[in-house]
Design brief:
Blueprint lengths: L5 H24 L3 E6 L4 E4 L1 H7 L3 H4 L13 H13 L5 E8 L5 E10 L5 E8 L1 H15 L9 H15 L5 E10 L1 H8 L1 H18 L5 E6 L2 E9 L3 H14 L3 E3 L2 E3 L2 E9 L5 H18 L3 E5 L7 E4 L2
Parallel strand pairs: 11-12
Antiparallel strand pairs: 1-2, 1-5, 3-4, 4-5, 6-8, 6-11, 7-8, 9-10, 12-13
């Protein structure tokens, strides 16, 4: 094969020069964050879009490790992925991660890293996907929470109940479910309308939220029904004490516009050390709640004792 002529060499050099200019222009004006990394993950070159995303200047971040800007929770996976890219000579690596700006703001990004074609040099692209991640989180929240009160819904409650019961197989203890139904709620809807009934439900939900522990799960099942999951119980009597606090929290009148309305609650309590599944435990709490409503008892504990198995017993 003959060697290239001087004219052919000049043409090749000119093409390389133009390509380099095109890359520099694209790098500078790209709408996504771009950087040139060395083999240690340090930022050798950065474009304005990356500086905007990171909330810093080119002078401040050039020479710094990209690790400085990655969220601590995402850093181990990001560092491991970059090591694999360098050591295994992979074509590219793509992952979602969070970057943290100096002002503390967190942004979600799709990070794509690939060899630049030069030895020990890599091209990083960061596409801001914060809006998409926020939308995904809103959809997940809507699927698992009650739109009126913001409390977890039945789906999320049953998932957490299943997890709590599974945990009992590893760490013995007791779990309680309190099923709560408001007494007198229908009359509020009938006399003041559904909008005012919704206002009352939101107020009751707020009171309940401030009554239970942050580690417990309070859910609205729909209508005027609420459920409470309590774990780490030392004794069944603690569930009864919680029911007393719940009744006390609901008892004060609720002011709706110029009206004051009072409601009470019937509560069914079911306690287990792990012998029932989620559906059975919830069913027992429901049975106890209806017994409490029929007896005007405030609350009823579904007792699971020798000689009384399967029979709800009124709280003394």
């Amino acid at each position: 094969m003959s060697e290239p002529t001087p004219a052919e060499l000049r043409q090749s050099l000119e093409r390389c020069r133009r390509l380099a200019e095109h890359f520099v222009t694209a790098f500078r004006y790209a709408p996504v964050g771009m950087a040139i990394l060395d083999a240690a993950g340090r930022l050798a070159e950065v474009n304005p879009a990356l500086c905007d995303m990171l909330g810093t200047s080119a002078a401040d971040c050039t020479g710094a490790s990209m690790d400085r800007f990655v969220h601590p929770a995402d850093l181990p996976a990001a560092a491991a992925a970059f090591r694999r890219l360098v050591q295994a000579h992979l074509a590219a690596n793509n992952q979602e991660l969070r970057v943290v700006r100096p002002d503390g703001m967190t942004r979600w990004a799709l990070a794509s890293t690939s060899p630049s074609g030069e030895s020990d040099s890599y091209i990083l692209q960061l596409v801001d996907i914060t809006a998409r991640k926020d939308a995904e989180q809103r959809l997940v929240h809507q699927a698992l929470h009650d739109a009126l009160t913001g409390l977890p819904n039945r789906v999320l409650f049953l998932d957490r109940l299943g997890q709590a019961l599974t945990a009992l197989t590893r760490d013995p203890g007791m779990v309680a479910v309190l099923f709560l139904d408001l007494d007198g709620f229908k009359s509020v809807n009938d006399t003041l309308g559904h909008a005012r009934g919704d206002d009352l439900l939101k107020e009751i939900g707020s009171r309940l939220r401030h009554t239970v522990r942050a580690s417990d799960t309070l859910a609205r099942f729909g209508g005027d029904e609420f459920a409470l999951l309590v774990h780490d119980l030392g004794a069944a009597s603690q569930a009864v004490e919680l029911a007393e606090r719940v009744v006390a929290a609901i008892r004060p009148p609720v002011r709706i516009d110029e009206h004051e309305r009072s409601v009470t609650a019937s509560i069914g309590i079911a306690v287990t050390s792990g012998s029932q599944d989620a559906g059975e435990l919830l069913r027992r709490a429901d049975v106890a709640m209806y017994q409490a409503k029929a007896d005007l008892a405030g609350w009823v504990v579904y007792r699971d004792e020798p000689g009384q198995r399967g029979q709800p017993g009124r709280n003394p």
